[in-house]
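Write out the 3D structure for:
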Amino acid sequence: MKTSNEILQIINQYLDNMPFERRPKSLYDPIRYVLSMGGKRIRPVLMMMSYNLFKDDPERIIRTAAALETYHNYTLLHDDLMDNADMRRGNPTVHKQWDANTAILSGDAMLVLAYEMMADCPEENLRDILNLFTETALEITEGQQYDMEFESRDDVSEHEYIEMIRLKTSVLLACAMKMGALLAGASTEDAERLYRFGERIGLAFQLQDDYLDVYGDPATFGKAIGGDIICNKKTYMLINAEARASASQRNELRCWLRENSVVPSEKIAAVTRIYNDIGVGELAEKKIKEYFDEGRKYLDEVSVDESRKAELRAYTDKMMHREK
């Protein structure tokens, strides 16, 4: 069994040395740039750890894991363009470093490269892997569309929001876990259990992001808190605050949401106070724990020895007790 750090090292070494021999160089330089930014590599790590539950040579599936990470970074590249974001992981985004047209075209190439690498998996797994990958890619696009539509709606329910983050974020973690199991020859039942485990962990992970944007420590969160509040982003926190607020609290909250010319620190402080009065922080913590506990039950049911699950448990525990 390999540790998560050993697996991460294998992934980073592979991504750092991926050959880009095609031309024009100007199309592939932004791809190399995006992949060089680093990150936690959660999805390929989970895929290889899932495989490692059943077999001891996770490096065998490195190309499939790299394909999923390439796809994930493609979605980030296009998200940054759609959001007109300036920075990603402390570096200028592709459309800022180059231009919007380059971001679109290089992103498209990343998607095609991801499929090309995915198709290199063993022939006996090819149909299942490509079907899972394609379904996941479509679901993520659907989640992104819901997220865009929610920006102009004031009646988004908690149920709708959970489904949106399941599609936009959670299914890719679930896909990673199931792919690892399939490539290792796991049973259909265990592959599905690991999918559900990844799905629940992904929901908890995204809700934790919502929580940390309000209550995280800026020194460890890696960015200033309150960004979601400033841009009126629909989050678990805001949706539940609006649903549970008294009439006076709702009026005050909506005044802050409508006001364009505000001092950011004042808006963050005011909205956070409303959140505190309503107790949405505690609601979020409870929901995070609920999804995490559900996920752990699916992992409990995977039919391998408990000693083989220890590293995966430790890795996901660390994910869920992060401060950034």
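The mean pLDDT is 95.
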